[in-house]
Design goal:
CATH superfamily of chain A: Cytochrome c oxidase-like, subunit I domain
Strand content of chain B: under 5%
Low-confidence stretches of chain B: 1-5
CATH topology of chain A: Cytochrome C Oxidase, Chain A
Number of strands of chain A: 1
Low-confidence stretches of chain A: 6-18
Distance between the termini of chain B: 45 Å
Shape of chain B: globular
Number of domains of chain B: 2
Radius of gyration of chain A: 23 Å
Largest sheet of chain B: none
Shape of chain A: globular
Mean pLDDT of chain B: 93
Oligomer: heterodimer
Number of helices of chain A: 16
CATH class of the largest domain in chain B: Mainly Alpha
Mean pLDDT of chain A: 93
Radius of gyration of chain B: 23 Å
Largest sheet of chain A: none
Helix content of chain A: 55-70%
Number of strands of chain B: 1
Number of helices of chain B: 8
CATH class of chain A: Mainly Alpha
Order of helices and strands of chain A: EHHHHHHHHHHHHHHHH
Order of helices and strands of chain B: EHHHHHHHH
CATH superfamily of the largest domain in chain B: Cytochrome c oxidase, subunit III, four-helix bundle
Distance between the termini of chain A: 28 Å
Chain lengths: 541, 295
């Protein structure tokens, strides 16, 4: 039975038709998962540099003790905006962009299930960030109470309404994106692509999308309560009226904890694609990997109060949340074990994606261990709101999520563009990143254990040395990302080296059976699935 | 699972997504500006909000019109139909989670924050040092917190209008189901009759709720500013009321579409999506009736 993708337009029967579109039609009115994926990735890269420049301001101010560069309020704006931009602007859109590009190709579909909604999901984002970033230039300044927006501090901010509405827009965008991904995975798979034959990346996105739909509305509810508390005389978070500021923290973190898994589960998926390719072995324990992701997603709903140990919770709650949090180490341990076991005995080569993937396994695990330390209630009383926390979540988010995104970029960019990137400069980028990121964040563990609080522009002279080292690492890590930009620009526009269809010798899966770059509609004819062609090999039932 | 398709469908390019993004931005940008305007100062935010809101209505009209045209032209195959169904189901799930946030807030306030302020269990020191004379209770006694924010007030009893509203919504669920069965049986007159009933029931629910709100503000001194009782009451019933409004409008549009002959016996996803939404609104109301009015 022949299958062909059809368009409404009569003149669109051949792949070359998109050359006839003008710029606006191609990029703004798109219904093509690749173009929309590209938009997401470019937007995310832009936000990565904007958020990164905020981080540079923070590290410059913290270069030495005392106040030297910026006003305290501006410093607070920087810490707040750095987090909001990196989380909602850089990491999440990057994963959605990767999902957009890869999921239809990986499951053998022509496009996403709901292509027009896909376009709307993206185009909301630039407006949402314009709204949020504009507050930096408005009278009263931007949000400065931390990205968590705890009341009553956040209620003093003149920009609260802007940030709340920006968060609403981002939430709408994420929910629509997630609905689209679920519908694509459940409804658009090629014949024979059973659920347990899907690549781990697709599985990780299916579960992530579920998390997004479950928790983004909760965040919308939480910030709506902030808005009404400030402007409409409600008292959700005001004890005088019977409310409780801690209520906000509960609702926020009910969103916030699944959110941190939203930012790492697709990374797990990416690493589970890359390691088998360069170890030239099927992934070890495919089903265990899938069930581990599902277990982590389930547990993410019952651990939120570990962000609030120091707020004064009842003892029973602290103990429950401590044990539930530690339980997450079990499925995460399964994943790390399986990545290592996949590499064990493999015939490995270390191209740039693999270097980032191996660095991910090691450095993410360090972040995981410091997370276990923070999960201990009695220890957390000392660590809470110190630089130890900052070090922890930057290990899981920078060397975790961001390294995975970079690995994915190097891994798939030859497929996207049809050209090889410069392996030499990729490796230069990798080694600079991996060295300086540790110089940047590792000393922050010591600072935190010694008691340096986070989100404060000045500090005791006792913390001077490690802060200076950390700042130097920060500047150089930031500068290293310019190499990344250079490698991407070179690969997209200047690289002469054509990529083969398979690109990597050990690469398996449907996306590598397409040409590089792939045709406008990924699979106009549904592919025939051969088990031995899949990345995880043949799965026994 | 999308495996019996002869042909894949990819929709053509559309201007509606970018229009939607722009009008959504105008709406919230206007709203944020308006909220931040000094009292008495005329703000362009209000105008912008209005333009954006009208833009959203036009956008919905235009986007749905093009989708309906494409659907009527028979362009959507069963795979597209399944994608739409999944989209609607997961959208309703996200709405459930949105209400979950406010129900969660209500439960937390009633189970923890109010009793703690009254000296029970965990929050005993706050009680002793700040509000030692506050006796925790819900309802008109202490529902507006230890500072009695908003002054003394009365609550809305469950067995008057709220009970009537419960009966109205439950019967509207029955009528919409009868209409669905009639649609599947191909009796268009019966569909119009019972769907019309459903729209009227939705409208009467809204009328009763508006009446209840006016009574609460005028006679009971129960307002949005009446401590946590007032804000949980009005935010929960208010968001529900907004959803009923939306649902009623959607039902009315579906009624017009039935009249126009848009639906066939086995091809009427638009009808079903709105019916699902209506049932969801109904179930949320049952939760509200139980936890906001009765308990």
């Amino acid at each position: 039975m022949a299958q062909a993708a059809t368009h409404d337009h009569h003149d669109e029967h051949h792949d070359e038709h998109h050359e006839h579109q003008n710029f606006f039609q191609r990029w703004v009115m798109s219904t093509n998962h690749k173009d929309i994926g590209t938009l997401y990735l470019v937007f995310s890269l832009l936000m990565f540099f904007i958020g990164g420049s905020f981080a540079m301001v923070i590290r410059a101010e913290l270069f030495k003790p005392g106040m030297q560069l910026v006003q305290p309020y501006f410093f607070n704006e920087m810490t707040t905006m750095h987090a909001l931009v990196m989380i909602f602007g850089a990491v999440m859109p990057a994963f959605v962009g990767l999902g957009n590009w890869m999921i239809p190709m990986m499951v053998g579909a022509p496009d996403m299930a709901l292509p027009r909604m896909n376009n709307l999901s993206f185009w909301i984002l630039p407006f949402a960030f314009a709204l949020m970033l504009s507050t930096l230039f408005l009278p009263g300044g931007g949000p400065a109470g931390g990205w968590t927006m705890y009341p009553p501090l956040s209620l003093q901010s003149a920009s609260l309404a802007y940030v709340v509405f920006a968060v609403h827009l981002m939430g709408i965008s994420s929910i629509m994106g997630a609905i689209n991904i679920i519908a694509t995975i459940l409804n658009m798979r090629a014949p024979g692509m059973d659920l347990l034959k899907m690549p781990v990346f697709v599985w990780s996105w299916l579960i992530t999308a579920f998390l997004l739909i479950a928790v983004m509305p909760v965040l919308a509810g939480a910030v709506t309560m902030l808005l009404t508390d400030k402007y409409f005389n409600t008292h959700f978070f005001d004890a005088a009226g019977g409310g409780d500021p801690v209520l906000f923290q509960h609702v926020f973190w009910f969103f916030g904890h699944p959110e941190v898994y939203i930012m790492i589960l697709p990374a797990f998926g990416i690493i589970s694609e890359i390691i088998p390719t360069f170890a030239r072995k099927p992934i070890f324990g495919y089903k265990a990997m899938v069930f581990a992701i599902a277990s982590i997603a389930f547990l993410s709903f019952i651990v939120w109060a570990h962000h609030m140990f120091a707020v004064g919770l009842p003892l029973g709650a602290e103990i429950f949340f401590m044990y539930a949090t530690m339980l997450i180490a079990v499925p995460t341990g399964v994943k790390v074990f399986n990545w290592v076991a996949t590499m064990w005995g493999g015939s490995m080569t270390f191209e740039t994606p693999m270097l980032f993937a191996v660095a991910f396994v090691i450095l993410f695990t360090i972040g995981g261990f410091s997370g276990l330390m923070l999960a201990l209630v009695p220890a957390d009383f000392a660590y809470h709101d110190t630089y130890f926390v900052v070090a922890h979540f930057h290990y899981v988010l920078v060397t975790g999520a961001i390294f995975a995104i970079m690995a994915a970029t190097y891994y798939w960019i030859p497929k996207w563009t049809g050209h090889m990137y410069s392996e030499f400069w990729g490796k230069v980028h990798f080694w600079n990143s991996v060295v300086w990121v540790n110089v940047l964040f590792f000393p922050q563990h010591f600072l935190g254990l010694a008691g340096m609080p986070r989100r404060i522009p000045d500090y005791n002279v006792a913390f001077a040395n490690f802060n200076m080292i950390s700042s130097i690492g920060g500047f150089l890590f930031g500068a290293s990302q310019l190499i990344f930009l250079g490698v991407i620009i070179h690969c997209v526009w200047f690289s002469k080296k054509k990529a083969t269809d398979r690109v990597w010798e050990g690469a398996k899966g449907l996306e590598w059976t397409l040409s590089s770059p792939p045709p406008h509609h990924s699979f106009s004819v549904a592919p025939v699935i051969h088990d031995e062609e899949l990345a995880h090999g043949h799965v026994e039932d | 699972m999308g495996q019996q398709q002869d042909i894949y469908y990819v929709p053509s390019k559309s201007q509606w997504p970018i229009v939607a993004a722009v009008v959504m931005f105008l709406t919230v940008f206007g709203a944020a500006h308006w909220l931040n305007a000094e009292p008495g100062e005329s703000s362009f935010g209000k105008t912008l909000l209005l333009i954006g809101f009208i833009g959203i209505l036009l956008m919905f009209f235009g986007w749905f019109r093009s989708v309906i045209h494409e659907s009527m032209a028979g362009r959507y195959n069963s795979q597209v139909d399944r994608s739409f169904r999944m989209g609607m189901m997961w959208f309703i799930f996200s709405e459930v989670m949105f209400f979950g946030a406010f129900f969660g807030a209500l439960f937390y306030i009633r189970m923890f924050s109010v009793p703690w302020l009254g000296g029970y269990g965990h929050g005993v020191l706050t009680h002793q040092f700040l509000w030692s004379d506050y006796a925790a209770s819900w309802g008109s006694g202490g529902g507006n917190g230890p500072a009695h924010v908003g002054g003394s007030f009365e609550t809305v009893g469950p067995w008057g209008l709220p009970l009537l509203n419960t009966l109205i919504l439950l019967s509207s669920s029955v009528t919409v189901t009868i209409a669905h069965h009639a649609l599947k049986a191909g009796h268009r007159g019966k569909v119009l009759l019972f769907l019309g009933f459903t729209v009227l029931l939705g409208a009467s629910f809204l009328y009763c709720q508006a009446h209840e709100y006016m009574e609460a503000y005028k006679d009971l001194n129960l307002t949005l500013g009446t401590g946590v009782y007032g804000c949980t009451f009005f935010m929960l019933t208010g968001f529900h009321g907004l959803h009923v409004t939306l649902g009623t409008i959607m039902l009315a549009i579906i009624w017009l579409r039935v009249l126009a002959g848009h639906f066939s016996k086995d091809h009427h996803f638009g009808f079903e999506a709105v019916a699902w939404y209506w049932h969801f609104v109904d179930v949320v109301w049952l939760g509200l009736f139980m936890f906001v009015y009765i308990l």
